[in-house]
Amino acid sequence: MRVTANKLAKAYGFLWALRELNLELTPGECVALLGPNGAGKTTLLKLLAGLIPPTSGQIRLDGEDFSRGAAALRARVGLLEPAGHLYENLTVRENLAFFTRLYDRNSAAPAIDAALAHVGLGRRAGDYVANLSSGMKCRLSIAKWLLLQPELLLLDEPYGVLDGSGVDLLEDFLRDQCAKGSIVVMASHHVSRVLGLCERAVILSQGRLTFNETKRQPWPSFDQAFSEFLPHGGA
Amino acid sequence: MAKQHRGVNKRKGILGALALVAVAVGLYWSLIVAPPDAYQGEVQRIMYLHLPSILIAYLSYFLVFVGSGLYLWKREKRDDILAHAAAEIGVLFTALTIIEGSIWGRPTWGVWWTWDARLTLTAILLLIYVGYLMLRSLIEDEQRAATAAAVLGIIGFLDIPLIHMSVYWWRTLHQPPSILRPDKLPWENVHPSMLTALTISFIGFLLLYFYLLSLRYRVGEMRQQIKALRLERGTG
Amino acid sequence: MTLLRQAYLLLCKDLLLELRRRDSLLTMFFFGTLLLFVFHFSFDLVPERVAEMAPALLWLAFLFTGTLGLAQLFQAERENHCFDALLLSPLDRGALFLAKTGFNLILMVLVEIVVIPLFWILFNVRSWNLLPQVFLVTLLGTVGFCVLGTLMSAITLRARARELLLPLVLFPLMIPVILATIRCMEEVLRTGQIGDAMHWLRLLLGFDVIFMTAGVLIFDWVIEN
User: Fold this and answer.
1) Mean pLDDT rounded to a whole number for chain B
2) Nearest residue, CB atoms, B230 vs list A14, A206, A207
3) Distance from CA of B9 to the nearest CA of C (A)
4) Which of A72, A87, A103 is opposite residue C82, by nearest beta carbon?
5) pLDDT tens figures, A170-187
6) Which among A106, A122, C24, C194 is most buried, taking Cβ atoms within 10 Å?
7) Same domain, A169 and A192
8) Domain assignment of residue A2, yes or no
């Protein structure tokens, strides 16, 4: 799937969250979305996910306009909220069964069991989500998207709730997705970590895209762009 | 842009003047030229205000419906402004209708209020309008408020014929027909002078309505322009 | 996946959640019963007048009870941003409308199945043989209530003073249903059959069909974030 954002802009009331944003994403890419708080990262992710409509500009997925999103396009996009998008009073298994059926994916018990085993929740299949820790909820989210296989996967600050093995799990999952041709866009404050994973960095500052380059060694332009918004320098 | 508005303002001024003239002529015809009603006497004259008011109250809700439908379809701000303006002016004319009906009712039936079909329906229309306006004011996010109001505008309009039927059936099957028989058309057995008074009055009120609507619409437009300006100056 | 299958999936999910916590169902049931008690004290009903007033009292009780249910309708989706999860998915918004309407309908029917016979007992109404017709009329009215109620519940989701606003916008629109249901029930209790009140029944049916259709079509725009 190719993703193109053209002159994208979003305003909330009197404030512009995003201004004149142009971005292109190609299959198999892993993109790091960086920037200070309030720069517009979450807004961009929500726009790409189709959750909110842009104030102006458009997003195209494989050439098709995403704003009055057809269900078919929405089925191919995913947003991984670390501890969200799960029903508290359903069990782990029931949540996965519900979402896989909703997306018309394989909802058979073996597939769900395999996904749960992969993320280390095999023994918690019958537990209510309300009884899980946030780290485990994040693992459940990973299992969910593992089953749903989106072509565009967006992540908003996933590192916060994960422990060491959880982080490895997530990064392996994302690398697999990219290898399969999916696009991954991750917003994070853990710069060194996310740059280890991604091959492109995009920096947002006050709603504008100020930096968009592929990773290379050494990367003086990145160091400069990054230090401009972080007073204490890069990671 | 200023020149454009001067032109528009001039047209509005003419509309306002015409409205004033038409209403004045209508009042003259209603109060002086037309003869008093054979049965009801002088008090019947309030019908020259009451009937146009109610028709315009319904016309206004139709405009709310049109604005709402267009807004949901095209998402153009001006349709939302139209719907909101029509709702505000509409509620004014609806309240007016009820007051006029009440004033007519007191000498005629001896009571300030009665649950006859017409008054009841007007009261219900008022409640729908009020609900619409309250909905708008209680939702913070402007876009959500516009969408919610548009949905209510459409659903309300679809409901009005059903409300009509149910209220008329309720009133006519349980009580003897009231003086205001819904089946009696205004131009049957009516003195031609009365008909003229009614027509002129109606035209006057219609012009007045559109004049007020255009003013209120302009206010809505200006609010939008201010918002746009603030947005430009904002975190730009 | 078709509209109906999606609606069915969502409905099952909501019923499962309700089965677990039974928050809405129990509250609605007890509130409905409480209202019957309040009515009994408020209206000093002699046995001859009970049949006359039964439809109105019953329907008032269901109206207020149903409004309670409506306020809770989207509660499950408000936790954990699950609403976003649904909007993100290939879910047809019309399916969400059907599912929520159906869910509220099932809750209300369950409450009515208990409260109507309870009313018959508490108020000493004789005509037990007329219960099926009474249920039928109540069902049609409840469908109308749930359809409009879901729409109004959805558009007032983010409003301030929501618990007050919801009845304010809903009740005037419900007048055809209120009139039709009560008149039908009166006719049934008086003569034992729908008979002369047939046109009211048709109005009810028309109302249900019109707004069910409108709801499915319009819900896309209601929910656009």
Assistant:
1) 82
2) A14
3) 35
4) A87
5) 999 999 999 999 999 999
6) C24
7) yes
8) no
* Number of compact structural domains in chain B: 1
Query: Domain total for chain A?
Result: 2
Instruction: Specify whether A158 is located in the same domain as A235.
Output: yes
Per-residue exposure over B122-156, b if at least 16 CB sit within 10 Å of its own CB, e if not:
bbbbbbbbbbbbbbbebbeebbbbbbbbbbbbbbb
Name every chain A residue with its beta carbon within 8 A of the beta carbon of B227: 14
**Residue A50 falls within a domain, yes or no?**
yes
In tens, the pLDDT along C80-130 reads 889 889 989 999 889 999 999 999 999 999 999 999 999 888 888 878 888
- A223 is in which domain, residue-wise? 25-76+154-235
DSSP chain A: --EEEEEEEEEETTEEEEEEEEEEE-TT-EEEEE--TTSSHHHHHHHHHTSS--SEEEEEETTEE-TT--HHHHTTEEEE-SS-SS-TTSBHHHHHHHHHHHTT----HHHHHHHHHHHT-GGGTTSBGGGS-HHHHHHHHHHHHHHH--SEEEEES-GGG--HHHHHHHHHHHHHHHHTT-EEEEE-S-HHHHHHH-SEEEEEETTEEEEEEE--SS-HHHHHHHHHH-TT---
Its pTM stands at: 0.88
Judgement on whether residues A181 and A142 belong to the same structural domain of the protein: no
Do B135 and C169 lie within an 8 Å CB cutoff? yes
User: Which residue of chain C is at minimal alpha-carbon distance from A148?
Assistant: C89
Chain B residue with minimum CA distance to C170 = B131
